[in-house]
Amino acid sequence: MDNVTGFGPGVGCSRPPGCDDEYISSNTTCIYIESVEGCNIHRVGLGLDSTQIKTECYMVSNVSEYYNTYCGPPHQQLNGPPFLDRLDGRKHLSQKYMLQTKEKYNTTLIGIETLVDVYDLMNYSTLEVNETSSWVDYLFWQEVEGCKVLSACMGEGYAFNLDCPHGFKYHVSTECNQKGCCGDGTCNLGENYVKCPVDCPIPAACPSLLGLNGCITPSGSLYNVTYTLHVMNSTAAMNLSTTPTIRIQNDTAVDSHTMNQIMSQTGAYNITVGPLGQNDNINATVYVSTS
Distance (Å, rounded) from C-alpha 47 to C-alpha 67? Predict the structure, then answer.
């Protein structure tokens, strides 16, 4: 893409289709550098100059209809306020006007939103522009955090930011919801519940919940302690493929024991240790594994 120095086309480098000078020199495009460590993305390409983003039009605010679990619970994905709510000073679509419109016109999509022109706001010395806020107007004035839209270039120091719900609504990738990366709401190839637990659920073959209880019983003037372990996967009790080990520390002495499976119960194991003195200070740690 370098058409200035001696390292671009004409000195052994070729451009892919659509990367001719006429596109690069356009006022609406720019060259961007994109680096997303979590996705192993490092690339240079043609992007949209953020100073060229259209901010003049209002559109229907309907992020609640594009609800995405990755972006949080539904109450965090609220539609923008309609005209009357804006006159009343509200920051989101209210039940009052939504119910009235539902009854009269059988729709609830009356919220409106636009994008804020941050470059115009720079002309007002009394305004302090939050550089990290989403550009969606009703969120911008609440200083709701956004993430930089990938393939858009910064202009005059400002990045084009969108919050998570609007990133999904407008089908653009941001540094917070890059498609194909950990955190995009999909368990992609190469991801698993260890590398990316936010996208990949724990498989049923893996234990996800362990419960260890100790029961003290007298043995003459001394005591025994019976430890019972219960193992569950994401849905129910499960048996382990390898018998668990329990590591018991009694003051400074440490012993490891193999627990016994309780055949009458799924996912239950126990072991009894002792006899122990009344003042013995013991601690137990269980180690489990499964194939």
Answer: 27
